[in-house]
């Protein structure tokens, strides 16, 4: 059973994961086996545990403990740091979502080839830096049958706290990994790597020469990677030129485009594997 520990010193080193460490320090690129991610709210934490993620510690409002027996029973002998709502908000710098945070071991990411094995629909996120958008895209990917997500080296980390929360824990359900480790690894050789794995590539971009997302040629593709670009500028010209298709979502009332998270949901549904 988890160990309940009262928070008395906001600067205690064992609480640093909830308060003082930057996202880069949590990720710990030099020693990924020591990397940590933070999940918020019981629902999100349950999804992480269901997916086999290893809890390290909890930060939990005292009044929430009695309603979290299932989480604590599943988590073994891990510390549960607790206190009043105001105390924990002062520690974390924000009010805890549903009164609960959990630090989890960050897993090793799969190889691109392993993630793609057996997949028919992929999402590729190019340089999307807003954690809210990344989380929302993962939620749509989980709901609409996308088999896996690839993020380019310039993309926001899907395991950052806000992306995890906005995704409602679906980042623990949809397989994902990074395609390349340096900015120069995308779009080439990344696109060539996808083609070698049997995927056609569809760049979501505004162009007079683009196909409608409803085009039957897209639906007929056995393996399709849907490439989504960064907020504002969209996909790089090199990426659009290197993809097999350029795809647009038809718009009404003079609207020129959708937010990338909204566009992803439309594309995932329309281009789902039949």
What does this protein structure show overall?
It is a single chain. With 274 residues, the protein is of the alpha/beta class. It has twelve helices and twelve strands. The chain has helices at residues 16-19, 23-27, 42-50, 69-74, 85-92, 112-116, 131-143, 161-166, 190-196, 216-219, 237-242, 260-270; strands at 3-6, 36-40, 55-61, 79-83, 100-105, 121-125, 148-151, 176-178, 200-204, 211-212, 224-228, 245-248. The N and C termini lie far apart (46 Å).
Indicate the radius of gyration in whole angstroms.
Answer: 20 Å
- Tell me the series of helices and strands, N- to C-terminal: EHHEHEHEHEHEHEHEHEEHEHEH
Which stretches are low in confidence, meaning pLDDT under 50 for 5 or more residues running?
none
The major pleated sheet works out as: 7 strands, parallel
Q: Compute the number of helices.
A: 12
Helical amount among residues, as a percent range? 25-40%
- Count of individual beta strands: 12
Which structural class is indicated by helix and strand composition? Answer: alpha/beta
Strand order, largest beta sheet: 8-7-6-11-9-12-10
Main attributes of the structure:
single chain, about 270 residues, alpha/beta, 7-stranded parallel sheet, 12 strands, about 20% strand, tRNA_m1G_MTases_N, transferase, RNA binding, rRNA_Methyltransferase
Task: Record the SSE blueprint.
Elements (H helix, E strand, L loop, with lengths): L2 E4 L9 H4 L3 H5 L8 E5 L1 H9 L4 E7 L7 H6 L4 E5 L1 H8 L7 E6 L6 H5 L4 E5 L5 H13 L4 E4 L9 H6 L9 E3 L11 H7 L3 E5 L6 E2 L3 H4 L4 E5 L8 H6 L2 E4 L11 H11 L4
Parallel strand pairs: 1-4, 3-4, 6-7, 6-11, 7-8, 9-11, 9-12, 10-12
Antiparallel strand pairs: 2-5, 3-5
């Amino acid at each position: 059973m988890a160990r309940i520990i009262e928070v008395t010193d906001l600067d205690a080193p064992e609480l640093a994961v909830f308060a003082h460490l930057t996202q880069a320090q949590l990720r710990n690129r030099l020693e990924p086996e020591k990397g940590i991610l933070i999940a918020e709210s019981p629902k999100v934490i349950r999804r992480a545990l269901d997916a086999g993620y290893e809890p390290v510690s909890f930060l939990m409002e005292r009044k929430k403990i009695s309603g979290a027996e299932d989480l604590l029973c599943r988590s073994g002998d891990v510390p549960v740091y607790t206190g009043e709502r105001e105390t924990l908000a002062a520690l974390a710098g924000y009010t805890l979502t549903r009164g609960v945070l959990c630090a989890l071991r960050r897993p090793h990411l799969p190889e691109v080839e392993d993630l793609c094995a057996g997949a028919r629909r992929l999402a590729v996120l190019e340089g999307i830096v807003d954690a809210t958008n990344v989380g929302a895209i993962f939620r749509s990917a989980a709901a609409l049958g996308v088999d896996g997500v690839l993020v380019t080296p310039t993309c926001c980390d899907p395991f950052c706290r806000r992306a995890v929360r906005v995704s409602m824990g679906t980042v623990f359900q949809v397989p994902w990994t990074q395609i390349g480790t340096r900015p120069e690894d995308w779009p080439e050789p990344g696109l060539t790597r996808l083609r070698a794995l049997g995927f056609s590539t569809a760049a979501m971009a505004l162009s007079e020469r683009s196909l409608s997302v409803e085009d039957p040629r897209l639906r007929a593709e056995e393996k399709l990677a849907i490439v989504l670009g960064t907020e504002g500028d969209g996909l790089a010209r090199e990426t659009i030129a290197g993809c097999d298709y350029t795809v647009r979502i038809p718009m009404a009332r003079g609207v020129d485009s959708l937010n990338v998270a909204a566009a992803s949901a439309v594309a995932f549904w329309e281009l789902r594997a039949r």
